[in-house]
Each structure stands twice: as C-alpha cells, then as structure tokens.
Specification:
- The protein has about 475 residues and is an alpha/beta fold.
- Helix 2 runs parallel beside helix 11, helix 8 packs parallel to helix 10 and helix 17 runs parallel beside helix 18.
- The chain folds into two domains: about 250 residues, Alpha-Beta Barrel (TIM Barrel); about 200 residues, Vaccinia Virus protein VP39 (Rossmann fold, 3-Layer(aba) Sandwich), CATH 3.40.50.150.
- The protein is elongated, with a radius of gyration of 25 Å.
- The strands form two sheets. It has an eight-stranded parallel sheet with strand order 1-2-3-4-5-6-7-8. It has a seven-stranded mixed sheet with strand order 11-10-9-12-13-15-14, with helices on both faces.
C-alpha cells in the first residue's frame, strides 16, 4: 500500500472541504497513491476540516488530530480522548511554529505520554523557517532528544526531517529508536543541493524502516512529489524493500494498518482440536494432554512467562489456556490475578471450568472471533508449536492480535531451531529466532527473547509501555 503521510487540504484555494478533498484524491489517483494522511497545521487545516474530509472519503483518508500544548493538562488529555473516538484518528500532530511553543513546553510531554496509551504516534513539525515566528533551539531537532528519552514508548515523527538541520535529526534518531523521520517538503525545497545526497545517506544509515514518505501537499503536488522522490530513490539505488518501507510500510506499522488478518484454515484448526481432544481421551486432565513432557517442564515455562511484569492484581488473558494450569501456577506462587482463558477445544474448556468454577473460560479463536476487551497482560504457552500450513503467518497473526489485546505486554513461548536433530518431531514446528524477533520489533522495539534452558524453546516478551 502506497501512502502519502503528510497532506493538507487546500482550503484557501477551493473554499470547500469536499472540493479540496476531491482534488487530493485526483492527484493521488494520478500517481497510484492508495491512502493519504491528513494533517492539521493550525492555519490552513484544523481538526474539523480533517473530520469532514475523512467522513466524506473514509476509504482514502486517515487523519491526525491537533491539540494545544499550552493548555492545561486536564484539557489536553480530554481533547485527545475526544479525538481518539473518531474512526479516522491515527495520531496527534503539533506544530511549534504555528502554535507558538517550544519542545520545553510541559504540555508537549503530557501529549507524548498520553498518545502512548493509544499506541499511536506523535508528529511534530521540524522545518527551521522564520516564516511565522523567530525560531530558537527549542524547535530544532536537538530538542527532540529529551522528549524521546523521557517517553521511550512513544513513537515520535520528526516532520520534514529537520530541514537543513537534517544531520542533527539523524543524530537524535540514531540515539533514540522511537524517533522516525518524515521527508516531506525537504526533498523538494532543497532540490539540487547537497541536502538531497545527505538525505539518502541518512536513510541508508538509519534504515528505511525509520523513514516516512510525504509531500506536504499543497506546498508540493502529490503527483510531482512522488515522481521527484521516486527518481531520487532510484538514483541512489534504493532496493524494492527500502522503497516499500518508505512509501507506506513504516507509517502503516505505526498506525496499525495490517490488511486482512490471517486465519487458520478449517483443516488446520480441525487438526489442532482433534489432536488435543484425542489426547484428552487418552490422558485425561494431564500435562501430557497439553503435549508437555512433565509438570516440571511446564512449570519452568510458566515461571519464564510470568517474568513479563508485576502480575499481582492484574487482569490476564491466557490464549490456548488448556485446563487453566497457568492460573494454578500463579496462585501457588501467591500471585492473585483476574484470569480469563480461551481455547479452541470445547472438551478442554469443559474441564477447565470444572477445575476452576470461579474463573472465566471460553471457546474462542482470537483471530476470527470478536475479541475486543483489553487485558493488562496476554499470555500463550505452546499454542504455536504444532505444524500448520503456514506457521510463520500464523505466528505473526497471533502475536499481533495478542499485542492488540494487551495494555502492558505479552509473553509467549515457541520451539527454536536450535535443537538436536534427534529431538525433532515431524508434527511440530521450530521457529527461527531472528525472524520472529524482527517481526516482534515492528510492534514495539522493546521485544526481546529469552531461551528456556535446558529446554529447546524460548520465550518472547513484548512490553507496550
């Protein structure tokens, strides 16, 4: 999907939001741009303009809302919460030059902290220009460093890549993995200068997954900008993968555009259910039904999962819960939780309910059932180990959905390829750790792995805050 992530409606020219929006779409269609993100700037565009345009053309536009960092904290948070109720809302944009503030303003930190609770990005204008007010260092790239360090789980987009101060932007981004650089307008304004080659150097050094394409329309035409920046990428031999990141991939991950969800085929799902229910008939309510060697190994895995955070008093969801043994493990350790368990097997859930009449168990598939409630922590133990038609897609879908359902973090375990050949079992799947970790870090850079020694598996942890 190709996205222009920095677009304004040309209200001064067209006077009418519908006409202005249609002109944007005409330009998008002329160069194959699928979606545009409409940004307010406190002058040409305000929140009401974004709201109307996104309602008129919801299949082509997403929007960022704007709040005022100079307001009191209570008003800032209330305004953000009201914006978050809009279907089009994908983040917050603030503009130091037009809103007349610097990044030292306390309200900026309130905004950064609160937008992290929605797991959406904060875009901040950073194009040094004396067009509106005299500038100072509080608006330049170096000022982003403190904001990023004090809000490490907030994804911050530095709009315009810092303009002619782009190497300062690069230094700040290298020091803070939650800083992303938007190339809008800078590539056009400095065309023919050394800034062009400097931009490409920075993109290569920083990594395309930290770069976001946008035009700053109407300062530059959408079609013209796409053509110019595309040629610039070609001259500097950007790979197809790098272009995919820049022209939509990076921003898609930040605002959670993932396309159609993967789901297990009926055949795969039936085989999983049949496997466990046949083992249930053979072993009864035993760890062997769950395909674990013994209770000691199961306890080792549970102990590892519980290291995600302080669980006492928290709500947890156990995906593929089996008989609710993870709840028993936590209870025996003196950890009190509000526990919910989901499993694909009705037979397994029936026994789980019998064993734990005060806990909540349901037959649910989180990839296809309507599961929206969020839990403090979400866990899964062993559910990805059985071989299916496409294990990597299955794993990515499960991990992404678990992360969507959590407030604080997720933990799950899976088998590793680092296993003695003699211990491989044909019906099980063994995952490449680097491949899983690479995907997990597209959800949050906090993702980490820990080997469950002496077992041939590992635990993946992803914290949200």
């Amino acid at each position: 999907m190709k996205i222009d992530a920095h677009v304004h409606l040309n209200i001064p020219k067209y006077k009418d939001i519908k006409k202005a929006a249609r002109e944007v779409i005409r330009e998008m269609d002329a160069c194959g741009i699928d979606k545009a993100i409409l940004l307010p700037d406190n002058q040409m565009n305000v929140n009401s303009h974004i709201d109307e345009a996104c309602k008129l053309f919801p299949d082509r536009f997403y929007g960022f809302g704007m709040v005022d960092p100079k307001d009191k904290k209570e008003k800032i948070l209330k305004d953000m919460d009201n914006l978050a109720r809009k279907k089009w809302f994908k983040g917050i944009k603030i503009h130091p030059r037009t809103q007349h503030f610097t990044l030292k303003e306390p309200g900026v930190f309130h905004i950064a902290r609160h937008i992290a609770s929605y797991d959406l990005p904060l875009t901040i204008d950073c194009f040094p220009s004396f067009k509106f007010i005299p500038l100072n260092e509080g608006m330049f790239p170096n000022a982003f460093d403190r904001l990023a360090k004090e809000n490490p789980t907030t994804n911050i987009i530095m709009a315009h890549m810092g303009g002619h101060r782009l190497f300062d932007a690069f230094a700040v981004a290298r020091a803070n993995e939650n800083i992303f650089l938007d190339v809008a307008y800078t590539f056009y304004y400095y065309k023919g200068s050394s800034v062009e080659s400097d931009m490409m150097f920075i993109i290569k050094k920083l990594g395309s997954w930290r770069i976001i394409y946008g035009t700053d329309y109407p300062a530059i035409g959408i079609r013209e900008g796409y053509k110019q920046f595309g040629k610039l990428c070609d001259r500097h031999k950007m790979s197809a993968g790098e272009k995919k990141d820049i022209f939509g991939g990076t921003i898609s991950k930040l605002i959670h555009l993932r396309g159609p969800r993967f789901k297990l085929s009926k055949k795969d799902k039936m085989e999983i259910v049949n496997l466990y229910e046949s083992r249930l008939k053979k072993h009864g309510a035993s760890v062997k039904t769950m395909e674990w060697f013994d209770a000691k190994q199961q306890a080792l895995r549970f102990a590892k999962l519980s290291k995600i955070g302080k669980l006492n008093g928290k709500s947890i969801l156990d995906v593929g819960c089996g008989f609710g043994d993870f709840y028993d493990h936590l209870r025996d350790k003196g950890v009190k939780v509000k526990y919910t368990g989901y499993d694909l097997s009705s037979g397994i859930i029936k026994i789980a309910r019998w064993k734990h009449p005060d806990m909540h168990f349901e037959v649910k598939d989180i990839l296809i059932d309507d599961v929206r409630k969020k839990y403090d922590y979400v866990f899964a133990s062993g559910i990805l180990n059985k071989k299916v038609s496409d294990n990597m897609s299955y794993a990515r879908a499960v991990i992404a959905k678990m992360f969507e359902l959590c407030k604080y973090g997720i933990a799950l375990n899976m088998f590793t390829t680092k296993v003695d050949y003699a211990d491989y079992e044909a019906h099980l799947f063994y995952y490449l750790q680097d491949e899983i970790l690479r995907f997990a870090r597209t959800l949050n850079r906090s993702a980490r792995m820990s080997r469950n020694r002496p077992l041939y598996d590992y635990t993946l942890f992803i914290n949200k805050r």
